[in-house]
From TrEMBL:
Pfam families: GFO_IDH_MocA, GFO_IDH_MocA_C3. Residues 127-259 form the GFO/IDH/MocA-like oxidoreductase domain. Transmembrane segments: none annotated. Residues 2-114 form the Gfo/Idh/MocA-like oxidoreductase N-terminal domain. Keywords: Oxidoreductase. It comes from the Bacteria. Belongs to the Gfo/Idh/MocA family. This is Gfo/Idh/MocA family oxidoreductase. InterPro entries: Gfo/Idh/MocA-like_OxRdtase_N (IPR000683), Gfo/Idh/MocA_oxidoreduct (IPR051317), GFO_IDH_MocA-like_dom (IPR055170), NAD(P)-bd_dom_sf (IPR036291). The keyword Transmembrane helix does not apply.
Length: 375
């Protein structure tokens, strides 16, 4: 693979390489020469002077990781596909649904794979939760509460947040893109992988805090959505940079509840609370049962805290597996497009949104080979 964009997130992908020794990095390119030099020096990679140089050097069958700023995703991905390369793009695929559709159509016309982040639905935690829902542990899922609240970020010491090779966290770009476009996918991919297509979304989004930028940034920093899935479940999803940090997801079914405390942790525990009656009271068990897969991805666990507790290369690895072995591709363009459409609507809903009917569709994602059953 080769990397385009060597900012903050690129270090997280490179650190994940420790878990994927078979993946070779051909080199990197960035329009910021100082950042490119620092990144390549730190990771001992080949720097390319231009995007065209990188695309010419990448062997056929390789994958370009598009880790540029969201506003550049469409143009960079298009150039890579037109150069006859597969692409794995950071979220979103594009800043407009029409542009995202264009990229999917181009990939299919040229016979290239197009995958999109996030890929945490391939993690042990997500696969455990999906297996529990698929096998009916809590009964049919009726309602889901999902939170992606990151704390009061404008007051955080974000100026001190540096990546491993020294890239600053791109605060201004994050604020101008919007936290929902940046982060909602971390839950949307889990939900779409488990339940398939979203039928409709009723959402509200607004700018609620001063982000300290000039001119003032009025991009929504809070969104609240009600998502109705074609297969039945109703989901309430919140995404903010205002409310205290909370990355929980809670599924309620006929027999009880399933809960994951942090969807950003690939190794997060999955708990089941059985519902029962004591005398005249209906209760959920005060002592949850931890669910474990009968067979997990041994030796493949991200061990660091925060965002680095995610393995960012699970998606590219899945694309490489599909290229070499065939079969189902769990990181396919239909999921990336569907998640992009949902995130775009949640971000841009505004304060007087009507119910939005989704235009794209996505089938549930088959379980990983090692995630067939629970202990």
């Amino acid at each position: 693979m080769a990397i385009v964009g060597t900012g903050y997130v690129a270090d997280l992908y490179m650190r994940s390489r420790d878990l994927h020794p078979d993946i070779q990095v051909a080199g990197a390119f960035d329009i910021r020469q100082d950042r490119l030099a620092a990144f390549c020096n730190y990771w001992n990679l080949t720097p390319f002077a231009s995007l065209s140089d990188l695309l010419r050097a990448l062997p056929k069958g390789g994958i370009v990781l598009n880790l540029t700023n969201p506003a550049a995703h469409h143009d960079v991905t298009r150039a890579c596909l037109e150069a006859d390369h597969h692409v794995y793009s950071e979220k979103p695929l594009a800043m407009e649904l029409g542009q995202a559709r264009e990229l999917v159509d181009l990939a299919r016309r040229t016979g290239k794979l197009l995958g999109g982040a996030p890929c945490s639905h391939l993690s042990e935690a997500a696969q455990t939760l999906a297996t529990a829902t698929r096998t009916g542990t809590c009964g049919p899922v009726r309602l889901v509460y999902a939170e992606l609240d990151d704390g009061f970020i404008p007051q955080a010491p974000h100026q001190k947040w540096l990546s491993e090779s020294g890239a600053p966290w791109p605060y201004e770009n994050e604020m101008q893109t919007g936290c929902t476009l940046e982060h909602a996918g971390y839950v949307l991919t889990w939900l779409v992988a488990m339940f398939g297509s979203i039928h409709s979304i009723t959402a509200f989004s607004a700018a609620t805090v001063d982000k300290g930028l000039e001119p003032e940034c009025r991009v929504p920093d809070t969104s609240i959505g009600i998502l109705k899935f074609r297969s039945g479940p109703i989901v309430r999803l919140t995404c903010t940079i205002v409310a205290p940090h909370d990355h929980r997801v809670l599924l309620t079914g006929d027999r009880g509840t399933l809960e994951v405390r942090d969807t950003w942790d690939n190794n997060a525990k999955v708990h089941f609370r059985r519902r029962f009656v004591v005398r005249r009271r209906l209760l959920e068990s005060p002592i949850p049962r931890r669910l474990r897969l009968a067979q997990g991805p041994a030796g493949r666990r991200a061990k660091r805290r925060g965002a680095a507790s995610m393995d960012f290369l699970l998606g590219p690895e899945e694309m490489f597996r599909h290229l070499s072995q065939g079969g189902v591709n769990r990181c396919a363009d239909q999921m990336a497009l569907h998640v992009t459409e949902a995130a775009l609507h949640l971000q841009n809903a505004g304060e007087a949104s009507e119910t939005y009917l989704m235009q794209t569709a996505c089938d549930p994602v088959p379980a990983m080979e090692w995630a067939g059953s629970l202990r």
